[in-house]
Write a structure and sequence with these properties.
The chain has 593 residues and is an alpha+beta fold. It is built from 20 helices and 20 strands. A 7-stranded antiparallel beta sheet has the order 3-2-4-1-10-9-11, with helices on one face. A 6-stranded antiparallel beta sheet has the order 5-6-7-8-12-13. It has a 5-stranded parallel beta sheet with strand order 15-14-18-19-20, with helices on both faces. A hairpin with a 5-residue loop joins strand 12 and strand 13. Helix 5 packs across helix 6 and helix 6 packs across helix 7. The chain is globular.
Length: 593
């Protein structure tokens, strides 16, 4: 994606079902669980680069010895920094291994040697990016059944309501961050479990998760570990956030992507299962695995941006769907270039659009009936390009050079250039960097094709696009309202949104949808192309978007398209979009939830 769009985090949970001695005998090291977790996180590094954390829990730790260990990093290249620090600690302790051969000594004497591991990769989409904001989050307790390690990929829309609930229950939350609120909520129900004089209790973990999930509005994939070694993975009822799991007689694993589990454990696609929406996967301290419903069944609304862009494309289904997205764009693109194969070069914006581009080529060859298709990698992102110049004018001069171009392919003044992108959200990089440098090649027409529809609405479930100020589609809408003399429609929408916000979430309607309905998809795309056009661009410019109908056809199992359609999957979504509209009307650039 040409825009720097941050998004959901990545999480990994590994529970060993046998004692450490078993793994040392079979795999040559008691660090089998740690080694698998590091690979699981490495294969999800695309999901978070602002922070990383790993927790390790020893089920057999004796009193007087900590039962968990934790390391976090929030520096640049945080995962690499985190693993380097942990590996140094492990390497320093390895010479002692011969002196401590029994299982108890291994878990107590060796750093990060245990039966349960919880890892997290964080994208800091908003707010605090300090070490304290990195997961796993901790609520320590001398009663192990009440201690909790929590990590997840989530955004809640009802944080303020949960905050007030906790206050009324006698808690004193230290912040309004949804991660802190969620941690406190789980602990609230943990601490209501009965205790014996010995300090132990028979936890109803499934019941606890059911209560927590029923109070949360939003998208979430939570993974947690209790101090006694019990663990869980929990998913929201609409399946907004992705969640997958696998288990055998040796290990239980949960993660944000299926392909990462496949790679880590060398599995076939069918062996890795999707965690059903509204369900929890629980693992007892003895390694017993259970899958149970926690929320009433509701229509699945899995985030389709996972298929378009976020998840790694080596998943079999995602690869197939991205190719289909490219194929679906061909008719509109051919209309724009008037079917002129001879004088058109096809390319893409690296590198996540590559799979989609393969599908585009497949369909071009099919429809061309043997015609020669000219294609090349025209725009190449300079991954190592950095600028530390503080002067704003110099930064503007250097910004277009984030991308390089391949010279000698475009015939100046006679060729069309089609570039495929995953999605156009803000349009800043396209307008200020990509189009100016493509124009140096002197094409007569530049067609920018987006494999996704225009992003019309803010997201409140994890993607970093929470305000209308950030969306070029909404900028185009404002321009169209002004050009057609319909600004009063915006004023009416603001009044209705303000009225809705005074009522409960169930009574809220999306007051922005009627504004977009005033104009066709073609009118909106044309206005976006006008806004994207740099002032000095010589080439003609056209923008082609995927339709929502084609998107659903290409990705039939992922109907979570609220940022395109305005159809939010939870009641809090309509409240968020109405608050975002009010923020825009009053020039408040902040998150509306």
């Amino acid at each position: 994606m040409s825009d720097n769009l941050q998004h959901e985090c990545g999480v990994g949970l590994i529970c060993l079902r046998k004692n450490l001695k078993y793994y040392e005998n079979k795999y040559g090291s008691p660090y089998y669980g740690y080694q698998k977790l590091t690979l699981l996180l490495e294969k999800q590094h695309n999901r978070g680069q602002d922070g990383a954390g790993i927790a390790c829990l020893s089920r057999g730790a004796q009193p007087g010895i900590p039962f968990f260990q934790l390391e976090k990093s929030c520096c640049e290249l945080s995962l690499a920094d985190l693993l380097e620090r942990i590996n140094r600690r492990i390497s320093a302790a390895l010479p002692l291994q011969e002196a401590f051969r029994d299982e108890l000594a291994m878990s107590e004497k060796f750093p990060f040697c245990g039966e349960v591991y919880l890892g997290h990769l964080r994208y800091g989409t908003f707010g605090n990016r300090s070490l304290n904001a990195c997961h796993p989050l901790i609520r320590d307790h001398s009663w192990r059944n009440h201690a909790l390690l929590l990590a997840g990929n989530f955004n809640l829309t009802n944080t303020k309501a949960l905050f007030q609930k906790l206050i009324s229950s006698g808690h004193h939350p230290k912040s309004l961050q949804d991660s802190e609120i969620l941690l406190a909520l789980v602990v609230h129900y943990l601490e209501r479990q009965p205790l014996t004089e010995a300090g132990s209790s028979d936890l109803d973990l499934g019941g606890i998760l059911q209560r927590v999930a029923s109070e949360c509005d939003g998208g979430f994939h939570l993974c947690g570990v209790l101090g006694n070694g019990e663990a869980f993975a929990l998913r929201d009822a609409a399946g907004i956030r992705p969640a997958f799991y696998y288990f055998d007689e040796e290990v239980v694993v949960a993660a944000s992507e299926r392909a990462t589990i496949q790679t880590t454990f060398n599995l076939k696609t069918a062996e890795v299962h999707e965690l059903p929406p509204g369900h929890a996967l629980t693992v007892s301290s003895k390694g017993i695995v259970a899958l149970q419903p926690c929320l009433p069944e509701r229509p699945a609304r899995k985030c389709v941006f996972e298929r378009i862009y976020f998840s790694r494309g080596n998943d079999a289904d995602i690869h197939r769907e991205r190719r289909a997205l490219g194929q679906a764009l061909v008719p509109a693109i051919l209309n724009r270039i008037e079917h002129d194969y001879r004088n058109t070069v096809f390319s893409y914006i690296p590198n996540t659009a590559q799979t989609c581009f393969f599908g585009l080529l497949d369909e071009l060859y099919r429809q061309g009936h043997g015609k020669h298709v000219r294609f090349a990698q025209i725009a190449v992102k300079d991954a190592k390009f950095r600028t530390f110049i503080s002067d704003a004018d110099h930064r503007r001069d250097l910004f277009p050079h984030v991308y390089d171009v391949t010279y000698g392919i475009i015939r100046p003044g006679s060729d069309n250039l089609v570039v495929l992108d995953d999605s156009i959200v803000r349009g800043n990089t396209m307008r200020n960097a990509i189009l100016p440098i493509l124009d140096r090649l002197d094409p007569k027409l530049i067609v920018v094709a987006s494999s996704a529809p225009p992003v019309r609405y803010p997201d409140c479930y994890g993607i970093d696009m929470a305000s209308f100020q950030e969306l070029i589609a909404f900028e185009a809408l404002q321009s169209l309202l002004k050009k057609t003399g319909q600004q009063s429609a915006l004023d009416k929408a603001v009044r209705l949104a303000e009225k809705d916000l005074s009522r409960g979430d169930e009574n809220c309607k999306n007051r922005v949808k009627p504004l977009y309905a005033l104009f066709s998809d073609e009118e909106l795309a044309l206005e976006i192309s006008c806004l994207l056009r740099p002032p000095d661009l010589r080439a003609r410019l056209a923008v082609v978007y995927q339709s929502c109908r084609q998107l659903r056809k290409c990705c039939p199992g992922h109907t979570g398209d609220w940022y395109f359609t305005g159809d939010y999957p939870t009641p809090g979504g309509n409240r968020v979009v109405n608050q975002a509209l009010l923020n825009y009307a009053h020039s408040i650039d902040q998150r509306p939830y």
